[in-house]
Protein backbone atom coordinates (compact mmCIF):
# COMPACT_ATOMS: atom_id res chain seq x y z
CA UNK A 1 0.00 0.00 0.00
CA UNK A 2 1.08 3.55 -0.60
CA UNK A 3 1.69 5.70 2.44
CA UNK A 4 -0.87 8.36 3.27
CA UNK A 5 0.11 11.98 3.53
CA UNK A 6 -1.28 14.44 6.02
CA UNK A 7 -4.82 15.78 5.86
CA UNK A 8 -6.36 18.80 7.53
CA UNK A 9 -7.19 18.02 11.12
CA UNK A 10 -10.76 19.14 10.63
CA UNK A 11 -11.39 16.19 8.34
CA UNK A 12 -10.24 13.80 10.99
CA UNK A 13 -12.91 14.47 13.58
CA UNK A 14 -15.04 11.91 11.82
CA UNK A 15 -15.05 10.39 8.36
CA UNK A 16 -18.69 11.01 7.49
CA UNK A 17 -18.55 9.29 4.10
CA UNK A 18 -19.18 5.85 5.57
CA UNK A 19 -22.25 7.01 7.52
CA UNK A 20 -23.50 8.82 4.41
CA UNK A 21 -23.12 5.69 2.26
CA UNK A 22 -24.99 3.64 4.84
CA UNK A 23 -27.66 6.32 5.08
CA UNK A 24 -28.05 6.47 1.31
CA UNK A 25 -28.45 2.70 1.19
CA UNK A 26 -31.08 2.53 3.94
CA UNK A 27 -33.11 5.47 2.60
CA UNK A 28 -33.15 4.15 -0.95
CA UNK A 29 -34.13 0.78 0.49
CA UNK A 30 -37.13 2.46 2.11
CA UNK A 31 -37.88 4.38 -1.11
CA UNK A 32 -37.83 1.24 -3.24
CA UNK A 33 -40.36 -0.38 -0.87
CA UNK A 34 -42.76 2.59 -0.72
CA UNK A 35 -43.19 3.62 -4.36
CA UNK A 36 -46.45 2.45 -5.92
CA UNK A 37 -46.12 -0.93 -7.59
CA UNK A 38 -47.17 -1.63 -11.14
CA UNK A 39 -47.25 1.84 -12.71
CA UNK A 40 -43.63 3.05 -12.77
CA UNK A 41 -41.06 2.17 -15.48
CA UNK A 42 -39.41 -1.23 -15.09
CA UNK A 43 -36.05 0.31 -14.12
CA UNK A 44 -37.69 1.66 -10.95
CA UNK A 45 -38.09 -1.85 -9.55
CA UNK A 46 -35.97 -4.94 -9.07
CA UNK A 47 -34.88 -6.24 -12.46
CA UNK A 48 -36.32 -9.69 -11.81
CA UNK A 49 -39.68 -8.37 -10.56
CA UNK A 50 -40.90 -6.19 -13.46
CA UNK A 51 -44.24 -4.37 -13.55
CA UNK A 52 -47.15 -4.64 -13.65
CA UNK A 53 -47.48 -8.02 -11.90
CA UNK A 54 -44.10 -7.96 -10.07
CA UNK A 55 -43.90 -11.74 -10.24
CA UNK A 56 -40.38 -13.03 -9.67
CA UNK A 57 -38.80 -14.09 -12.98
CA UNK A 58 -35.47 -15.83 -12.25
CA UNK A 59 -34.47 -15.96 -15.91
CA UNK A 60 -34.32 -12.15 -16.24
CA UNK A 61 -30.86 -10.60 -16.02
CA UNK A 62 -29.76 -6.99 -15.67
CA UNK A 63 -29.31 -4.30 -13.05
CA UNK A 64 -31.42 -1.42 -11.74
CA UNK A 65 -30.75 1.12 -8.98
CA UNK A 66 -33.02 -0.90 -6.69
CA UNK A 67 -30.67 -3.87 -7.07
CA UNK A 68 -27.83 -1.75 -5.67
CA UNK A 69 -29.33 -0.60 -2.37
CA UNK A 70 -28.82 -3.82 -0.39
CA UNK A 71 -25.27 -4.51 -1.63
CA UNK A 72 -24.33 -0.90 -0.84
CA UNK A 73 -25.54 -1.47 2.72
CA UNK A 74 -23.55 -4.72 2.90
CA UNK A 75 -20.47 -2.94 1.56
CA UNK A 76 -20.85 -0.21 4.19
CA UNK A 77 -21.28 -2.90 6.85
CA UNK A 78 -17.97 -4.47 5.86
CA UNK A 79 -16.27 -1.08 5.65
CA UNK A 80 -17.26 -0.46 9.28
CA UNK A 81 -15.42 -3.58 10.54
CA UNK A 82 -12.04 -1.82 10.93
CA UNK A 83 -13.71 0.86 13.05
CA UNK A 84 -15.86 -1.44 15.17
CA UNK A 85 -13.50 -4.45 15.46
CA UNK A 86 -9.91 -3.50 14.73
CA UNK A 87 -9.92 -0.45 16.98
CA UNK A 88 -11.27 -2.50 19.89
CA UNK A 89 -8.68 -5.20 19.30
CA UNK A 90 -5.87 -2.65 19.21
CA UNK A 91 -7.13 -1.22 22.49
CA UNK A 92 -6.53 -4.58 24.14
CA UNK A 93 -9.77 -6.55 23.83
CA UNK A 94 -9.16 -10.23 23.21
CA UNK A 95 -10.08 -11.95 19.96
CA UNK A 96 -12.36 -14.37 21.78
CA UNK A 97 -14.30 -11.56 23.42
CA UNK A 98 -14.77 -9.99 19.99
CA UNK A 99 -15.88 -13.36 18.60
CA UNK A 100 -18.47 -13.51 21.37
CA UNK A 101 -19.61 -9.98 20.48
CA UNK A 102 -19.99 -11.00 16.83
CA UNK A 103 -22.08 -14.03 17.78
CA UNK A 104 -24.17 -11.93 20.15
CA UNK A 105 -24.79 -9.32 17.48
CA UNK A 106 -25.82 -11.97 14.98
CA UNK A 107 -28.27 -13.52 17.44
CA UNK A 108 -29.75 -10.12 18.26
CA UNK A 109 -30.19 -9.29 14.57
CA UNK A 110 -31.82 -12.68 14.02
CA UNK A 111 -34.27 -11.97 16.83
CA UNK A 112 -34.92 -8.54 15.30
CA UNK A 113 -35.59 -10.17 11.91
CA UNK A 114 -38.07 -12.63 13.38
CA UNK A 115 -39.81 -10.16 15.68
CA UNK A 116 -40.46 -7.39 13.16
CA UNK A 117 -41.64 -9.81 10.47
CA UNK A 118 -44.29 -11.23 12.80
CA UNK A 119 -45.69 -7.77 13.53
CA UNK A 120 -45.95 -6.24 10.11
CA UNK A 121 -49.68 -5.40 9.90
CA UNK A 122 -50.25 -7.57 6.82
CA UNK A 123 -48.95 -10.55 8.82
CA UNK A 124 -51.40 -9.96 11.65
CA UNK A 125 -54.70 -9.71 9.80
CA UNK A 126 -56.16 -9.80 6.31
CA UNK A 127 -57.68 -7.34 5.75
CA UNK A 128 -55.70 -5.26 8.20
CA UNK A 129 -57.60 -4.01 11.22
CA UNK A 130 -57.14 -1.75 14.22
CA UNK A 131 -55.62 -4.46 16.41
CA UNK A 132 -52.96 -5.17 13.76
CA UNK A 133 -51.98 -1.50 13.58
CA UNK A 134 -51.81 -1.15 17.36
CA UNK A 135 -49.69 -4.31 17.68
CA UNK A 136 -47.30 -2.99 15.02
CA UNK A 137 -46.85 0.25 16.99
CA UNK A 138 -46.37 -1.78 20.19
CA UNK A 139 -43.64 -3.75 18.39
CA UNK A 140 -41.93 -0.50 17.42
CA UNK A 141 -42.11 0.74 21.02
CA UNK A 142 -40.71 -2.42 22.62
CA UNK A 143 -37.71 -2.32 20.28
CA UNK A 144 -36.40 0.74 22.12
CA UNK A 145 -35.52 -0.89 25.46
CA UNK A 146 -34.25 -3.92 23.51
CA UNK A 147 -31.73 -2.10 21.34
CA UNK A 148 -31.02 1.34 22.78
CA UNK A 149 -28.82 2.37 25.66
CA UNK A 150 -31.12 3.26 28.53
CA UNK A 151 -30.54 7.00 29.21
CA UNK A 152 -30.93 6.65 32.98
CA UNK A 153 -28.26 6.62 35.72
CA UNK A 154 -28.98 3.03 36.72
CA UNK A 155 -26.58 0.27 37.81
CA UNK A 156 -25.52 -2.28 35.22
CA UNK A 157 -27.83 -5.01 36.51
CA UNK A 158 -30.83 -2.69 36.14
CA UNK A 159 -30.01 -1.97 32.49
CA UNK A 160 -29.67 -5.69 31.84
CA UNK A 161 -32.97 -6.41 33.61
CA UNK A 162 -34.81 -3.84 31.49
CA UNK A 163 -33.41 -5.31 28.27
CA UNK A 164 -34.23 -8.88 29.29
CA UNK A 165 -37.75 -7.79 30.27
CA UNK A 166 -38.19 -6.22 26.83
CA UNK A 167 -37.07 -9.43 25.14
CA UNK A 168 -39.44 -11.39 27.38
CA UNK A 169 -42.36 -9.16 26.40
CA UNK A 170 -41.45 -9.57 22.73
CA UNK A 171 -41.37 -13.37 23.06
CA UNK A 172 -44.75 -13.27 24.80
CA UNK A 173 -46.19 -11.08 22.05
CA UNK A 174 -45.08 -13.53 19.38
CA UNK A 175 -46.26 -16.58 21.29
CA UNK A 176 -49.77 -15.36 22.08
CA UNK A 177 -50.66 -13.32 19.00
CA UNK A 178 -53.02 -14.70 16.37
CA UNK A 179 -51.80 -14.21 12.82
CA UNK A 180 -53.52 -13.94 9.46
CA UNK A 181 -54.77 -17.16 7.83
CA UNK A 182 -54.59 -18.87 11.25
CA UNK A 183 -50.79 -19.08 11.04
CA UNK A 184 -48.89 -19.25 14.31
CA UNK A 185 -45.46 -18.12 15.36
CA UNK A 186 -42.63 -19.70 13.38
CA UNK A 187 -38.88 -19.30 13.57
CA UNK A 188 -38.86 -19.57 9.77
CA UNK A 189 -40.94 -16.39 9.49
CA UNK A 190 -38.31 -13.69 9.39
CA UNK A 191 -37.21 -10.63 7.45
CA UNK A 192 -34.72 -11.99 4.93
CA UNK A 193 -32.79 -8.73 4.61
CA UNK A 194 -32.09 -8.56 8.35
CA UNK A 195 -31.41 -12.30 8.49
CA UNK A 196 -28.73 -11.94 5.82
CA UNK A 197 -27.22 -9.06 7.79
CA UNK A 198 -27.18 -11.26 10.88
CA UNK A 199 -25.20 -13.92 9.04
CA UNK A 200 -22.78 -11.32 7.73
CA UNK A 201 -22.41 -9.86 11.22
CA UNK A 202 -21.28 -13.27 12.48
CA UNK A 203 -19.20 -14.69 9.66
CA UNK A 204 -17.92 -11.42 8.20
CA UNK A 205 -16.86 -10.12 11.61
CA UNK A 206 -15.09 -13.32 12.62
CA UNK A 207 -13.28 -13.63 9.31
CA UNK A 208 -12.18 -10.00 9.52
CA UNK A 209 -11.06 -10.47 13.11
CA UNK A 210 -8.62 -13.23 12.13
CA UNK A 211 -7.47 -11.61 8.86
CA UNK A 212 -7.41 -7.94 9.81
CA UNK A 213 -3.74 -7.60 8.89
CA UNK A 214 -3.75 -9.99 5.95
CA UNK A 215 -5.62 -9.18 2.76
CA UNK A 216 -4.19 -12.26 1.06
CA UNK A 217 -5.86 -14.49 3.65
CA UNK A 218 -9.19 -12.73 3.03
CA UNK A 219 -8.80 -13.18 -0.73
CA UNK A 220 -7.87 -16.85 -0.26
CA UNK A 221 -11.02 -17.40 1.81
CA UNK A 222 -13.12 -15.81 -0.93
CA UNK A 223 -11.44 -18.06 -3.51
CA UNK A 224 -12.26 -21.10 -1.37
CA UNK A 225 -15.84 -19.90 -0.98
CA UNK A 226 -16.13 -19.51 -4.76
CA UNK A 227 -14.88 -23.07 -5.16
CA UNK A 228 -17.49 -24.35 -2.73
CA UNK A 229 -20.33 -22.45 -4.40
CA UNK A 230 -19.36 -23.79 -7.84
CA UNK A 231 -18.56 -27.33 -6.70
CA UNK A 232 -21.84 -27.61 -4.78
CA UNK A 233 -23.48 -28.36 -8.13
CA UNK A 234 -21.74 -31.76 -8.18
CA UNK A 235 -24.23 -34.38 -7.03
CA UNK A 236 -23.14 -36.50 -4.09
CA UNK A 237 -19.96 -34.54 -3.35
CA UNK A 238 -18.90 -33.58 0.16
CA UNK A 239 -19.02 -29.98 -0.98
CA UNK A 240 -22.70 -30.31 -1.81
CA UNK A 241 -23.29 -31.87 1.61
CA UNK A 242 -21.54 -28.92 3.26
CA UNK A 243 -23.46 -26.44 1.13
CA UNK A 244 -26.88 -27.89 1.93
CA UNK A 245 -26.32 -28.70 5.61
CA UNK A 246 -27.59 -26.37 8.31
CA UNK A 247 -27.90 -27.07 12.04
CA UNK A 248 -30.27 -24.07 12.33
CA UNK A 249 -32.02 -23.73 8.96
CA UNK A 250 -34.24 -20.90 10.22
CA UNK A 251 -31.12 -18.84 10.96
CA UNK A 252 -28.29 -20.01 8.74
CA UNK A 253 -27.82 -21.44 5.26
CA UNK A 254 -24.49 -21.74 3.52
CA UNK A 255 -25.87 -19.92 0.49
CA UNK A 256 -26.13 -16.77 2.62
CA UNK A 257 -22.32 -16.68 2.75
CA UNK A 258 -22.20 -15.66 -0.90
CA UNK A 259 -22.70 -12.08 0.28
CA UNK A 260 -19.23 -12.22 1.83
CA UNK A 261 -18.07 -11.35 -1.70
CA UNK A 262 -19.47 -7.87 -0.96
CA UNK A 263 -18.82 -7.60 2.78
CA UNK A 264 -15.16 -8.62 2.78
CA UNK A 265 -14.16 -6.28 -0.08
CA UNK A 266 -16.04 -3.63 1.91
CA UNK A 267 -13.76 -4.41 4.86
CA UNK A 268 -10.76 -3.80 2.60
CA UNK A 269 -12.15 -0.39 1.67
CA UNK A 270 -12.66 0.26 5.38
CA UNK A 271 -9.02 -0.64 6.03
CA UNK A 272 -7.98 1.99 3.49
CA UNK A 273 -10.30 4.59 5.00
CA UNK A 274 -9.04 3.90 8.53
CA UNK A 275 -5.44 4.07 7.33
CA UNK A 276 -6.12 7.44 5.73
CA UNK A 277 -7.70 8.69 8.95
CA UNK A 278 -4.83 7.46 11.12
CA UNK A 279 -2.20 9.11 8.94
CA UNK A 280 -4.26 12.29 8.80
CA UNK A 281 -4.53 12.37 12.57
CA UNK A 282 -0.72 12.47 12.86
CA UNK A 283 -0.61 15.85 11.16
CA UNK A 284 1.13 18.36 13.42
CA UNK A 285 1.81 21.27 11.10
CA UNK A 286 -1.18 22.41 9.06
CA UNK A 287 0.89 24.94 7.13
CA UNK A 288 2.98 22.12 5.65
CA UNK A 289 0.04 19.96 4.62
CA UNK A 290 -0.44 19.23 0.95
CA UNK A 291 -3.99 18.62 -0.25
CA UNK A 292 -5.33 17.40 -3.57
CA UNK A 293 -6.57 20.34 -5.72
CA UNK A 294 -10.32 20.87 -5.88
CA UNK A 295 -10.43 20.43 -9.65
CA UNK A 296 -9.08 16.91 -9.19
CA UNK A 297 -11.68 16.22 -6.49
CA UNK A 298 -14.48 17.32 -8.81
CA UNK A 299 -13.05 15.09 -11.55
CA UNK A 300 -12.88 12.11 -9.20
CA UNK A 301 -16.47 12.74 -8.09
CA UNK A 302 -17.70 12.96 -11.68
CA UNK A 303 -15.87 9.79 -12.71
CA UNK A 304 -16.99 7.67 -9.76
CA UNK A 305 -20.64 8.68 -10.20
CA UNK A 306 -20.40 8.22 -13.99
CA UNK A 307 -19.12 4.66 -13.55
CA UNK A 308 -22.17 3.81 -11.42
CA UNK A 309 -24.56 5.29 -14.01
CA UNK A 310 -22.80 3.59 -16.93
CA UNK A 311 -23.04 0.22 -15.23
CA UNK A 312 -26.71 0.72 -14.40
CA UNK A 313 -27.66 1.86 -17.89
CA UNK A 314 -25.39 -0.58 -19.70
CA UNK A 315 -26.30 -3.69 -17.70
CA UNK A 316 -30.02 -2.85 -17.66
CA UNK A 317 -29.93 -2.75 -21.46
CA UNK A 318 -27.59 -5.78 -21.65
CA UNK A 319 -24.74 -3.82 -23.30
CA UNK A 320 -22.11 -5.94 -21.56
CA UNK A 321 -19.01 -5.22 -23.64
CA UNK A 322 -19.74 -1.49 -24.00
CA UNK A 323 -20.21 -1.29 -20.23
CA UNK A 324 -16.89 -3.06 -19.68
CA UNK A 325 -15.03 -0.81 -22.14
CA UNK A 326 -16.42 2.48 -20.84
CA UNK A 327 -15.93 1.47 -17.20
CA UNK A 328 -12.33 0.47 -17.85
CA UNK A 329 -11.67 3.77 -19.64
CA UNK A 330 -13.11 5.83 -16.78
CA UNK A 331 -11.20 3.80 -14.19
CA UNK A 332 -7.95 4.49 -16.03
CA UNK A 333 -8.77 8.21 -16.22
CA UNK A 334 -9.64 8.27 -12.52
CA UNK A 335 -6.42 6.51 -11.56
CA UNK A 336 -4.42 8.86 -13.80
CA UNK A 337 -5.98 11.92 -12.11
CA UNK A 338 -4.79 10.85 -8.66
CA UNK A 339 -1.72 8.77 -9.48
CA UNK A 340 0.78 11.29 -8.10
CA UNK A 341 -1.50 13.17 -5.71
CA UNK A 342 -1.09 13.54 -1.99
CA UNK A 343 -3.68 14.08 0.73
CA UNK A 344 -7.08 12.63 -0.12
CA UNK A 345 -5.77 11.66 -3.55
CA UNK A 346 -3.85 8.78 -1.97
CA UNK A 347 -7.06 7.31 -0.55
CA UNK A 348 -8.93 7.83 -3.81
CA UNK A 349 -6.16 6.11 -5.75
CA UNK A 350 -6.23 3.08 -3.46
CA UNK A 351 -10.03 2.88 -3.61
CA UNK A 352 -9.96 3.25 -7.41
CA UNK A 353 -7.53 0.32 -7.67
CA UNK A 354 -9.65 -1.85 -5.36
CA UNK A 355 -12.87 -0.86 -7.10
CA UNK A 356 -11.34 -1.42 -10.54
CA UNK A 357 -10.26 -4.95 -9.64
CA UNK A 358 -13.71 -5.84 -8.29
CA UNK A 359 -15.70 -4.15 -11.05
CA UNK A 360 -13.69 -5.49 -13.98
CA UNK A 361 -13.71 -9.02 -12.57
CA UNK A 362 -17.46 -8.72 -12.11
CA UNK A 363 -17.99 -7.47 -15.66
CA UNK A 364 -15.90 -10.36 -16.98
CA UNK A 365 -18.14 -12.72 -14.99
CA UNK A 366 -21.29 -10.95 -16.22
CA UNK A 367 -22.20 -13.40 -19.05
CA UNK A 368 -21.66 -16.34 -16.66
CA UNK A 369 -24.73 -17.90 -14.96
CA UNK A 370 -27.11 -16.41 -17.50
CA UNK A 371 -26.14 -12.78 -16.96
CA UNK A 372 -26.04 -10.55 -13.92
CA UNK A 373 -28.84 -11.35 -11.44
CA UNK A 374 -29.68 -10.30 -7.92
CA UNK A 375 -31.64 -13.48 -6.98
CA UNK A 376 -29.91 -15.83 -6.64
CA UNK A 377 -26.88 -13.62 -6.73
CA UNK A 378 -24.49 -14.40 -9.58
CA UNK A 379 -20.74 -13.87 -9.34
CA UNK A 380 -21.12 -10.99 -11.77
CA UNK A 381 -23.65 -9.33 -9.46
CA UNK A 382 -21.54 -9.82 -6.33
CA UNK A 383 -18.31 -8.46 -7.80
CA UNK A 384 -19.91 -5.64 -9.81
CA UNK A 385 -21.89 -4.32 -6.83
CA UNK A 386 -18.81 -4.53 -4.59
CA UNK A 387 -16.86 -2.49 -7.17
CA UNK A 388 -19.67 0.05 -7.42
CA UNK A 389 -19.68 0.21 -3.60
CA UNK A 390 -16.07 1.43 -3.85
CA UNK A 391 -17.12 4.08 -6.36
CA UNK A 392 -19.94 5.22 -4.08
CA UNK A 393 -17.58 5.45 -1.11
CA UNK A 394 -15.19 7.59 -3.19
CA UNK A 395 -18.05 9.89 -4.19
CA UNK A 396 -19.27 10.33 -0.62
CA UNK A 397 -15.72 10.85 0.62
CA UNK A 398 -15.26 13.71 -1.85
CA UNK A 399 -18.60 15.27 -0.85
CA UNK A 400 -18.50 14.71 2.91
CA UNK A 401 -14.86 14.52 3.97
CA UNK A 402 -13.11 16.62 1.32
CA UNK A 403 -15.65 19.29 0.38
CA UNK A 404 -17.24 19.16 3.88
CA UNK A 405 -20.81 19.49 2.60
CA UNK A 406 -22.17 18.90 6.09
CA UNK A 407 -25.59 20.52 5.78
CA UNK A 408 -26.43 18.92 2.47
CA UNK A 409 -25.52 15.43 3.66
CA UNK A 410 -26.47 15.56 7.35
CA UNK A 411 -29.73 13.71 6.67
CA UNK A 412 -27.77 10.84 5.11
CA UNK A 413 -25.22 10.77 7.92
CA UNK A 414 -27.91 10.76 10.63
CA UNK A 415 -29.82 7.98 8.88
CA UNK A 416 -26.61 5.99 8.54
CA UNK A 417 -26.01 6.31 12.27
CA UNK A 418 -29.46 4.88 13.08
CA UNK A 419 -30.35 2.49 10.23
CA UNK A 420 -32.46 0.04 12.23
CA UNK A 421 -35.02 2.73 13.06
CA UNK A 422 -35.09 3.95 9.46
CA UNK A 423 -35.68 0.41 8.20
CA UNK A 424 -38.86 -0.24 10.24
CA UNK A 425 -40.27 3.28 10.67
CA UNK A 426 -42.73 3.00 7.78
CA UNK A 427 -44.07 -0.51 8.42
CA UNK A 428 -44.26 -0.36 12.22
CA UNK A 429 -45.08 3.30 12.86
CA UNK A 430 -46.05 5.48 9.88
CA UNK A 431 -48.38 3.06 8.03
CA UNK A 432 -50.18 1.98 11.25
CA UNK A 433 -50.63 5.61 12.37
CA UNK A 434 -51.95 6.62 8.95
CA UNK A 435 -54.42 3.75 9.03
CA UNK A 436 -55.61 4.59 12.54
CA UNK A 437 -56.05 8.24 11.55
CA UNK A 438 -57.87 7.35 8.31
CA UNK A 439 -55.21 8.98 6.12
CA UNK A 440 -54.47 5.97 3.91
CA UNK A 441 -57.93 6.12 2.31
CA UNK A 442 -56.60 9.13 0.37
CA UNK A 443 -53.60 7.22 -0.98
CA UNK A 444 -55.51 6.31 -4.13
CA UNK A 445 -54.43 9.64 -5.61
CA UNK A 446 -50.88 8.27 -5.86
CA UNK A 447 -52.03 5.51 -8.23
CA UNK A 448 -53.04 7.90 -11.00
CA UNK A 449 -49.70 7.93 -12.86
CA UNK A 450 -46.03 7.10 -12.49
CA UNK A 451 -45.07 10.56 -11.20
CA UNK A 452 -47.61 10.33 -8.39
CA UNK A 453 -46.51 6.78 -7.67
CA UNK A 454 -42.96 7.99 -7.21
CA UNK A 455 -44.16 10.93 -5.11
CA UNK A 456 -45.73 8.50 -2.64
CA UNK A 457 -42.34 6.89 -2.12
CA UNK A 458 -40.67 10.28 -1.65
CA UNK A 459 -43.21 11.39 0.95
CA UNK A 460 -43.13 8.16 2.95
CA UNK A 461 -39.33 8.02 2.82
CA UNK A 462 -39.19 11.63 3.99
CA UNK A 463 -41.41 10.76 6.96
CA UNK A 464 -39.21 7.77 7.83
CA UNK A 465 -36.22 10.09 7.55
CA UNK A 466 -37.79 12.63 9.94
CA UNK A 467 -38.53 9.91 12.48
CA UNK A 468 -34.96 8.66 12.25
CA UNK A 469 -33.44 12.14 12.47
CA UNK A 470 -35.58 12.93 15.53
CA UNK A 471 -34.33 9.91 17.46
CA UNK A 472 -30.77 10.48 16.27
CA UNK A 473 -30.96 14.12 17.42
CA UNK A 474 -31.98 13.06 20.92
CA UNK A 475 -29.17 10.47 20.98
CA UNK A 476 -31.55 7.50 20.85
CA UNK A 477 -29.72 4.85 18.82
CA UNK A 478 -30.68 1.23 18.24
CA UNK A 479 -27.54 -0.89 18.53
CA UNK A 480 -26.83 -4.62 18.57
Automatic annotation (TrEMBL):
The lineage of its organism: Bacteria, Pseudomonadati, Bacteroidota, Bacteroidia, Bacteroidales. It holds the Pfam family DUF5009. InterPro entries: DUF5009 (IPR032176). It comes from Bacteroides stercorirosoris. Residues 14-272 form the DUF5009 domain. This is DUF5009 domain-containing protein. Coiled coil: none annotated. Keywords: Membrane, Transmembrane, Transmembrane helix. The chain crosses the membrane at residues 21-43, 63-81, 102-120, 132-152, 164-181, 187-210, 215-236, 256-274, 295-315, 321-338, 350-368, 380-399, 420-439, 451-471.
Amino acid sequence: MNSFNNQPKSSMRRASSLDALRGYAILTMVLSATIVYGILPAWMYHMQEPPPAHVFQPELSGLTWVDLVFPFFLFAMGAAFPFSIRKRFEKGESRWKLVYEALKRGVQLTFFAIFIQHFYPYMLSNPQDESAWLLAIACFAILFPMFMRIPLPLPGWAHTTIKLAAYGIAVGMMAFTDYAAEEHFSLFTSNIIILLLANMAIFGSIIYLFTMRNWLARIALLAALAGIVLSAQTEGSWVQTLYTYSPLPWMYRFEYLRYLFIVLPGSMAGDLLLKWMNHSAKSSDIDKEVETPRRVAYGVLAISVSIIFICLIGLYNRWSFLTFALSALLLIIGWWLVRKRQGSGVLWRELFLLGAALLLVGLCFEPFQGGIKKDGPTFGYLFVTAGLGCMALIAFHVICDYLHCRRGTSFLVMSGQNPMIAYVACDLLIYPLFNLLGITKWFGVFHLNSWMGFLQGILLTALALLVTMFFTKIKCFWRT
